[in-house]
Amino acid sequence: MNNTNRALNRILILVIGLLTLLAGAALLAITTVHTIRADYRATAPTVHGDLTGWFKTIPLAGTGTSWGWILILAALVLIVVLLLIFIFRQGHGHHDTLLREDTTSGGATVIDSEVAEQAIQHDLDERPELLASHVSTYRVRRTPVLKIVVTCRRGESPRQLAEHIENTLTALDTLLGRQIPALIQISGGFRARLSRRTRVARTAHAR
Amino acid sequence: MSAPAPYSYRRILRRETHSSRAVLAIAAAVAIILLCLYAGAEIILMMVNHTALLAAPQDMLSALSTLGATPIAVPVTIGILLMLLGVLLIIGALTPGRRARHQLLPSIRAAVVVDNEVIASALARHAAHAGNTHPDNAVVSVSAHRAVIHLTPTSGTSVRSDAVENVTREQLASFELYPHVHASVVINANGKVGA
Lengths: 207, 195
What we know:
The complex is a heterodimer.
Chain A: H1 6-32, H2 34-57, H3 67-88, E1 97-101, E2 109-112, H4 113-125, E3 130-140, E4 143-152, H5 158-176, E5 182-187, H6 189-194
Parallel strand pairs in A: 4-5
Antiparallel strand pairs in A: 1-2, 3-4
Helix pairs in contact in A: 1-2, 4-5
Chain B: H1 10-17, H2 22-47, H3 57-65, H4 73-94, E1 101-104, E2 111-115, H5 116-130, E3 138-142, E4 146-151, H6 161-175, E5 177-178, E6 182-187
Helix pairs in contact in B: 5-6
């Protein structure tokens, strides 16, 4: 539901994987395959010499080092910054506005996500078969979508639960006069394992 | 704003039933960041004429250029480990990464996904009831296409395995899961006292 760029995740993993595989294979080939080793030993020192020679042609004003290192540092910083952006780009996608409609030429109607979230939450809180529930709104491809996550007691029928929650949603539709797409996620999890299987209905005048 | 056509849940369902690979991607990114920071630290230390943490960058480069001459045990091990890591990452990037969840098929109003765990405990309750035993004696594991029910009968009572099978099949049919799940029932030969 969130707008993590999954393709990008996979591409990054694939690129890093390929580079690691290549580096490993190169290392292995250089050290074990005779012809490659001979070639490598013939060319590597000259490449190394060229590189250090190039570094010496661009000295950094009297410090004994070279602009080459500064360039490498800049490249490293760039990679780190890009990867940090990539990491903090994960997730996100929560949305505050459920509906926005320009009803008249004079004004617009805006309904906050909270309205739907609290209405559903209130209804779900009263169900004894649910241990926990959480309602949130995500923006998926420009459309607000409700996400309803419930944790149920062990042994509950997921089909019945889904029907109950769908009824709640239908009631909300009547209230709003509009259907908001919704995802229902029924999960077990840790709390379900710890809780009792039997459930006792809450009554209005319970102490 | 309102969608006149029925909303297509395809993208959402795909995303809810498959891994985003975020953990692996973040781990790989953090590893690369740490490598970059280390290399950067060595370069800066070298530029201010400080002693290196492990090896100065120039020494690293010259070691790399004389790779074929050095004893080969260490580079071979590193090479194999790197290749292994690379293959694992590539597998992670290309496999679908299915999560332990199913979709409930004809959802009238909303898209519904259910953890396999919930399906398993619902099946366990019904199987145990049909087998005349306590729900704790029914162990159910649900994977993408199979549900296996292990039932330990109460000592002294007989379990009709066809009854248990019918009940679980009925339940599964009523859930209407996607991908479809086939159930099989295994009844332990040894019962349990007082269960």
